[in-house]
Hints:
By secondary structure, the chain is α+β, with helices and mostly antiparallel strands. The chain contains five helices and eight strands, in the order βββααβββαβαβα.
Amino acid sequence: MSEMRVIGIRVEQPQNQPVLLLREEDGERYLPIWIGQTEATAIALEQQGVQPPRPLTHDLIGDIVTALGRSLREVRIVDLQEGTFYADLVFDQNVRVSARPSDSVALALRAGVPIHAEESVLAEAGLVMPDEKEDEVEKFKEFLDTISPDDFKATDG
């Protein structure tokens, strides 16, 4: 299992599909996950430090968890099946709840907890990009120009 860092969100053109890019903290692999617009907005707002006047859905979920006396400990991206990623929210007392990775990352950023990816997921979908002198965002943009969601669908081979 590898700890991951959120690099950012980019909208893939021409489909207007948001992509979440994670990178191994102590490795070279990147993990692109195509996500919905609402979740992309929630992640981007949190990364930019924007505080909405009223809690958004992910803020509300965090408030509910706290009000119930629980705490989110980590997020784990645990599986990839036919191009769909699966994640677990891991709470105190090792209580686990299955969730979409996009929602999980939005919650992890708000709670300040680590995000991990299972080795099997990284082995299947993790990509190594050449380490050039460009910053990570530029590498991400170039990378997105070369792939599509179909690159991550399971094959019979």
